Amino acid sequence: MELNNNVYTIQGLKLTDIAEQFGTPVYVYDADKIAGQVQKLKDGFKGLNVKLKYAAKALTNLSILKLIRKQGCGLDVVSIQEAHLGIRAGFKPSEILFTPNSVAFSEIREAVELGLQINIDNISILEQFGNEYGGTKSCCIRLNPHIMAGGNNKISTGHIDSKFGISVYQMRHIERIVKACNMRINGLHVHTGSDILDPEVFLRGAEIIFESATHFPDLEFIDFGSGFKVAYKDDDITTDLQELGKKLGSAFKAFCKEYGRKLELWFEPGKFIVSESGYFLVRANTLKTTPATVFVGVDSGQNHLIRPMMYGAHHEIVNVSNTSGTKRVYTIVGYICETDTFGWDRQMHEVREGDILAIKNAGAYGFSMASNYNSRLRPAEVMVYKGEAKLIRQRETLDDLLRNQVEIEL
Ligand SMILES: *Cc1c(COP(=O)(O)O)cnc(C)c1O
């Protein structure tokens, strides 16, 4: 989104026009930004045998998946349904990594039948996989390196209390199962959490995984998961990809030499690729002055963008209908009947009823976490592609709320 002559635009299109054309609330994604983020990752890890597996759960719209596939990415999926969406968007099953947690073995079997690369994060599943497929199907192992990392408790996954991965301390047990079942382990994986700033965290994970790798002679790739931090505010620091690329790159090259074979280096960025591409446009319905503040009530709520209420996430909010004049302090709230705040104490150009507000960083974990709570309809999604705003998901209707309900005679 750019501000020129007091007008906010995406690829030259005015945000207020997009809101007018498609109505609000609406998620708007800038395809150029998505392509640019993928390019940044490619540049950061230049010269390495890198494969990017976009973490689909951040944003699963089919058109977005197609766009990301066109940038040369594979996919990381956490459910069989995400895998089906990926295949529908044109990804080859072999380009899709299946990283589930707490699923029944039947779902793993389904994924094997689809031809996905399986990532196993549980000793019991590893054993079942070995019993069923032996050496006929290879699989990756998700290790828990027990590193505390990530922006907050809900999104850090590698620490001691985490349910994710198989502990590196269980290596002897893993080895016994792999040997007994004659299994082929073709990848090792760590994903320590989201919003990791410090390249050192990746490097510590790398050291642990490189050491573990010596136990597995059939490796084809090492997957460092994700956690790349993006900017939520103008002055936010983000993961320094150049520094990370350099440090991790040289560590990886040294490891490959020792291992005796050139392996692929995988990453699974979700947020990094789509977060900043997305703007959630809402309309100011009401203004309410209380003894404490001025509330701006908008035509949406935490049912459409839950990150501020769920994670305390900060999303910048701008008034795209009024880009000059006095700045005032507002609290921006939604219409859900419980505490429902998008932003506290925000200085914004004066908000009038009917103004369009843009909530930033709405590409990742925005629509994909939206629900129908309060029987509200989920918003439309629009992608700005090659200078044109295209509808990529219709706004829901009352029929969508009723679709699967079964009314019984009473
Ligand atoms: C959620 C997740 C990701 C993506 O994390 P981001 O912070 O969005 O980049 C990658 N890998 C796995 C296994 C995940 O669960």
UniProtKB/TrEMBL annotation:
Gene3D superfamilies: Alanine racemase (3.20.20.10), Lyase, Ornithine Decarboxylase, Chain A, domain 1 (2.40.37.10). PANTHER family: DIAMINOPIMELATE DECARBOXYLASE, GROUP IV DECARBOXYLASE. GO terms for biological process: lysine biosynthetic process via diaminopimelate. Keywords: Amino-acid biosynthesis, Decarboxylase, Lyase, Lysine biosynthesis, Pyridoxal phosphate. It holds the Pfam family Orn_Arg_deC_N. Substrate binds at residues 307, 311, 338, 365. Transmembrane segments: none annotated. Residues 27-363 form the Orn/DAP/Arg decarboxylase 2 C-terminal domain. Specifically catalyzes the decarboxylation of meso-diaminopimelate (meso-DAP) to L-lysine. It comes from Fulvitalea axinellae. Its EC number is 4.1.1.20. SUPFAM superfamilies: Alanine racemase C-terminal domain-like, PLP-binding barrel. The modification N6-(pyridoxal phosphate)lysine is found at residue 57. It catalyses: meso-2,6-diaminopimelate + H(+) = L-lysine + CO2. InterPro entries: Ala_racemase/Decarboxylase_C, DAP_deCOOHase_LysA, De-COase2_C, De-COase2_N, De-COase2_pyr-phos_BS, Orn/DAP/Arg_de-COase, PLP-binding_barrel. Pathway: Amino-acid biosynthesis; L-lysine biosynthesis via DAP pathway; L-lysine from DL-2,6-diaminopimelate: step 1/1. It comes from the Bacteria. This is Diaminopimelate decarboxylase. Residues 33-275 form the Orn/DAP/Arg decarboxylase 2 N-terminal domain. The active site is at residue 337. Pyridoxal 5'-phosphate binds at residues 227, 365.
